[in-house]
């Protein structure tokens, strides 16, 4: 049967091993040097092993001590990390969400206060990307993506469709009386090469060459459009505020489906309490927008 090992003795050893000094460990633990030395000696007796060589000017850790130290350091670090999450009698849990920038700015950010009010003990960390994301490699609990929902190794739950429509400044809109008038304008493009061809098809026109600049984000494309650089083809639902403020105009009531927004997570990752809270919250927010979304967890 393994001997009972007092926590204070383990803590005394771990601190002494980091500092290679009983004196410095005593200062860190707010006890006397004699107490640290005694606790380490008691630990050695219980283990039946020498953990330090006592030298005239400090300590030298033995092979047995080298084997024990990283295990204890990791355990104490993990305990401290969890304890730091407690505040006011509640456990604060970190939730890391990656999102395409267009969705983050156009849909999520205006609703962040709602999430904070609903889940005050979840610490949300939001990171943006251009739809290329590695959930495991980037340490993400969720990624909100635009596409068809087929990402290997991921659970993907549809939030809502996001049809593409033409947006431009009011000045440019005055020149656009019919879709064919776009032939005289600079057409801003996304990384999806078929967007404009599909839109022209929906408008009843033959595809035409598109040589405008390419953007990896609809948000960036619209910023360029608002500065008069050309005409954007983007998910119009993400830019309702810009339309309401008159910075953008939708000259044609024609749209085309290019994908949907999805809430994704790793299939191999069990849902945490914070993940369940976020999925339930985002479901409620989308439901209130008259879109049916299943719960994630």
Automatic annotation (TrEMBL):
InterPro entries according to UniProt: AmpR_PBP2, LysR-type_TF_proteobact-type, LysR_HTH_N, LysR_subst-bd, WH-like_DNA-bd_sf, WH_DNA-bd_sf
Domain HTH lysR-type, chain residue ranges per copy: 5-62
Annotated keywords: Activator, DNA-binding, Transcription, Transcription regulation
A GO MF term: sequence-specific DNA binding
The keyword Ubl conjugation appears for this protein: no
Domain of life: Bacteria
Keyword Cell membrane attached: no
Pfam family, any one: HTH_1
Protein's GO biological process: DNA-templated transcription
Family the entry assigns: Belongs to the LysR transcriptional regulatory family.
Cited PANTHER family: HTH-TYPE TRANSCRIPTIONAL ACTIVATOR AMPR, HTH-TYPE TRANSCRIPTIONAL REGULATOR
Protein name: LysR family transcriptional regulator
Species this chain originates from: Paraburkholderia rhizosphaerae
